[in-house]
C-alpha cells in the first residue's frame, strides 16, 4: 500500500489576519464612527462635570472652606484666600499620595488609589488655574452667613455671595453670585457688623475707624428696621 502523502503544515506566519477596514473619510460609515467618538468624548466630559458638581462634592468642598476660616476672623483678605487654595486645598491629598508611594515596592506600578488621588489633584489644580468658584470669604456679611451653615444642606449655599478666583490672575475677582440680600443683612446684623454689603476684609478696618460705637449701633438698628 503506497504511503499516505501528508501535506506540509502551513506556517502560522503565513496566515493572514483579518484585514483592517478602511473607510473613505466622507463615507457614511466614517461619519458614524466620528459621531460615536464625539459622543463618547461628550459623555466622559459630562461625567467629570457631573461628579464635580454633585451635591456631595459641593458640600464636602464647602465644608473644607468653612473649617479653613480662622475662628476669630470676620473675613479673609484675597491673599489669604489664595494661600488657603494653594497651600491647603491643593495639598490636602499630599500625605495620602506620599503614603501610597512609600508603600509601593521599587519597580511596581502606581496603585489605583494613587492614580485617583493624582488625578483629583490634577483636576483641582487645573480648576484653580482656570477659575474656581468659592464663597466670597473676603466679604464680611458672607462670612457671617457662612458660619451659620449646618454643613449638610447644599441649598443654603445659594444664599451666599460667590466669587471666582484663579491662580493665573491672583488679583482678579469675578462676581459669580450676589447672594440673598435679606439673608446676608440678617447675618451681618446678628454678628454686629455694618450692613453695608459692599464691605470686604481689605476695607473693614477703615469702615469702623473714627466712627462712634453708638452711631454704628443706631445705624444697624435703623437699617434692620427698614429691612423688616
UniProtKB/TrEMBL annotation:
<dbReference type="GO" id="GO:0005634">
    <property type="term" value="C:nucleus"/>
</dbReference>
<feature type="compositionally biased region" description="Basic and acidic residues">
    <location>
        <begin position="17"/>
        <end position="34"/>
    </location>
</feature>
<dbReference type="InterPro" id="IPR021346">
    <property type="entry name" value="Tma16"/>
</dbReference>
<comment type="similarity">
    <text>Belongs to the TMA16 family.</text>
</comment>
<dbReference type="InterPro" id="IPR038356">
    <property type="entry name" value="Tma16_sf"/>
</dbReference>
<feature type="region of interest" description="Disordered">
    <location>
        <begin position="1"/>
        <end position="34"/>
    </location>
</feature>
<dbReference type="Pfam" id="PF11176">
    <property type="entry name" value="Tma16"/>
</dbReference>
<protein>
    <recommendedName>
        <fullName>Translation machinery-associated protein 16</fullName>
    </recommendedName>
</protein>
